[in-house]
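Researcher: Quick test of sequence recovery. C-alpha coordinates follow.
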Protein backbone atom coordinates (compact mmCIF):
# COMPACT_ATOMS: atom_id res chain seq x y z
CA UNK A 1 0.00 0.00 0.00
CA UNK A 2 1.17 3.54 -0.75
CA UNK A 3 2.65 5.30 2.26
CA UNK A 4 0.50 8.34 1.44
CA UNK A 5 -2.66 6.22 1.45
CA UNK A 6 -1.64 4.60 4.72
CA UNK A 7 -1.05 8.06 6.21
CA UNK A 8 -4.48 9.19 4.97
CA UNK A 9 -6.16 6.22 6.58
CA UNK A 10 -4.38 6.94 9.85
CA UNK A 11 -5.07 10.70 9.93
CA UNK A 12 -8.41 11.04 8.15
CA UNK A 13 -9.71 13.99 6.17
CA UNK A 14 -9.29 16.58 8.90
CA UNK A 15 -5.57 16.13 9.59
CA UNK A 16 -4.26 14.84 6.27
CA UNK A 17 -3.73 18.31 4.75
CA UNK A 18 -1.33 19.25 7.54
CA UNK A 19 0.77 16.17 6.86
CA UNK A 20 0.80 16.72 3.08
CA UNK A 21 1.77 20.37 3.60
CA UNK A 22 4.80 19.26 5.61
CA UNK A 23 5.84 16.83 2.86
CA UNK A 24 5.26 19.36 0.04
CA UNK A 25 4.89 22.84 1.60
CA UNK A 26 3.59 24.62 -1.51
CA UNK A 27 0.34 22.65 -1.32
CA UNK A 28 -0.30 24.26 2.07
CA UNK A 29 -0.82 27.64 0.37
CA UNK A 30 -4.29 26.55 -0.79
CA UNK A 31 -5.24 25.07 2.62
CA UNK A 32 -6.83 21.98 1.09
CA UNK A 33 -9.62 20.15 2.87
CA UNK A 34 -9.69 16.49 1.94
CA UNK A 35 -12.98 14.77 1.18
CA UNK A 36 -11.73 11.37 0.04
CA UNK A 37 -8.72 9.40 -1.13
CA UNK A 38 -8.58 5.85 -2.43
CA UNK A 39 -7.02 4.08 -5.42
CA UNK A 40 -8.43 5.74 -8.53
CA UNK A 41 -9.94 8.71 -6.67
CA UNK A 42 -9.16 11.90 -4.79
CA UNK A 43 -11.44 14.77 -3.79
CA UNK A 44 -10.47 17.93 -1.94
CA UNK A 45 -11.83 21.42 -1.41
CA UNK A 46 -9.98 24.68 -1.82
CA UNK A 47 -11.50 27.35 0.41
CA UNK A 48 -12.23 30.69 -1.22
CA UNK A 49 -10.18 33.15 0.82
CA UNK A 50 -8.33 36.38 0.14
CA UNK A 51 -4.89 34.76 0.21
CA UNK A 52 -5.70 32.86 -3.01
CA UNK A 53 -7.67 35.58 -4.82
CA UNK A 54 -6.77 37.21 -8.09
CA UNK A 55 -7.29 40.87 -9.02
CA UNK A 56 -11.00 40.15 -9.65
CA UNK A 57 -11.58 38.88 -6.12
CA UNK A 58 -12.16 35.32 -7.30
CA UNK A 59 -10.12 32.17 -6.76
CA UNK A 60 -6.85 32.48 -8.64
CA UNK A 61 -6.38 30.12 -11.58
CA UNK A 62 -2.98 28.98 -10.32
CA UNK A 63 -4.44 28.14 -6.90
CA UNK A 64 -6.81 25.82 -8.71
CA UNK A 65 -3.91 24.37 -10.73
CA UNK A 66 -2.15 23.71 -7.42
CA UNK A 67 -5.20 21.78 -6.23
CA UNK A 68 -5.40 19.90 -9.53
CA UNK A 69 -1.77 18.81 -9.28
CA UNK A 70 -2.26 17.75 -5.66
CA UNK A 71 -5.33 15.62 -6.47
CA UNK A 72 -3.74 14.07 -9.57
CA UNK A 73 -0.49 13.35 -7.77
CA UNK A 74 -2.17 11.71 -4.80
CA UNK A 75 -4.49 9.68 -7.00
CA UNK A 76 -1.51 8.48 -9.01
CA UNK A 77 0.54 7.69 -5.92
CA UNK A 78 -2.16 5.59 -4.28
CA UNK A 79 -3.10 3.84 -7.54
CA UNK A 80 0.13 2.72 -9.20
CA UNK A 81 1.62 -0.67 -8.29
CA UNK A 82 4.37 -1.04 -5.71
CA UNK A 83 7.74 -0.70 -7.38
CA UNK A 84 6.56 2.10 -9.69
CA UNK A 85 7.16 5.83 -9.47
CA UNK A 86 5.60 8.88 -11.05
CA UNK A 87 6.31 12.48 -11.90
CA UNK A 88 4.07 15.08 -13.58
CA UNK A 89 5.42 16.11 -16.97
CA UNK A 90 2.59 18.18 -18.44
CA UNK A 91 -0.54 20.06 -17.41
CA UNK A 92 -3.30 21.16 -19.77
CA UNK A 93 -5.88 23.45 -18.23
CA UNK A 94 -9.13 25.00 -19.43
CA UNK A 95 -10.55 27.84 -17.37
CA UNK A 96 -14.30 27.67 -17.88
CA UNK A 97 -15.76 30.10 -15.34
CA UNK A 98 -14.79 32.40 -12.48
CA UNK A 99 -14.67 30.66 -9.11
CA UNK A 100 -16.52 32.85 -6.60
CA UNK A 101 -16.87 30.22 -3.87
CA UNK A 102 -14.99 27.30 -2.37
CA UNK A 103 -14.23 24.76 -5.08
CA UNK A 104 -14.23 20.98 -5.18
CA UNK A 105 -11.30 19.34 -6.98
CA UNK A 106 -11.99 15.78 -8.10
CA UNK A 107 -9.80 13.22 -9.80
CA UNK A 108 -11.84 10.29 -11.09
CA UNK A 109 -9.34 7.71 -12.25
CA UNK A 110 -11.28 4.48 -11.87
CA UNK A 111 -11.06 3.81 -15.63
CA UNK A 112 -7.30 4.43 -15.88
CA UNK A 113 -4.96 1.47 -16.31
CA UNK A 114 -2.64 2.30 -13.42
CA UNK A 115 -0.35 -0.62 -14.28
CA UNK A 116 0.68 0.98 -17.60
CA UNK A 117 4.16 2.44 -17.97
CA UNK A 118 4.89 5.66 -19.84
CA UNK A 119 2.71 8.73 -20.14
CA UNK A 120 -0.59 8.53 -18.32
CA UNK A 121 -3.20 11.32 -18.62
CA UNK A 122 -4.94 11.99 -15.30
CA UNK A 123 -8.17 14.06 -15.52
CA UNK A 124 -9.29 16.67 -13.00
CA UNK A 125 -12.64 18.47 -12.74
CA UNK A 126 -13.06 21.52 -10.49
CA UNK A 127 -16.55 22.75 -9.62
CA UNK A 128 -17.86 25.63 -7.53
CA UNK A 129 -20.56 25.67 -4.86
CA UNK A 130 -23.30 25.70 -7.53
CA UNK A 131 -21.74 22.60 -9.16
CA UNK A 132 -20.63 24.72 -12.13
CA UNK A 133 -17.47 23.38 -13.75
CA UNK A 134 -14.87 26.15 -13.43
CA UNK A 135 -11.71 24.26 -14.47
CA UNK A 136 -10.99 21.11 -16.45
CA UNK A 137 -7.42 19.83 -16.42
CA UNK A 138 -5.41 16.85 -17.56
CA UNK A 139 -2.09 16.22 -15.89
CA UNK A 140 0.18 13.80 -17.69
CA UNK A 141 2.17 11.59 -15.36
CA UNK A 142 5.26 9.72 -16.42
CA UNK A 143 5.07 6.28 -14.81
CA UNK A 144 8.19 4.14 -14.61
CA UNK A 145 9.65 1.32 -12.59
CA UNK A 146 11.81 2.22 -9.61
CA UNK A 147 15.41 1.37 -10.27
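Model:
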Amino acid sequence: MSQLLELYRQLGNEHYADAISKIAPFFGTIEPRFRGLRPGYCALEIPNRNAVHNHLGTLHAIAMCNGAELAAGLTTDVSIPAGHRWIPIEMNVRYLALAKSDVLVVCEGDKIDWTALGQLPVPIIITDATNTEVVRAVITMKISRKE
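The mean pLDDT is 96.
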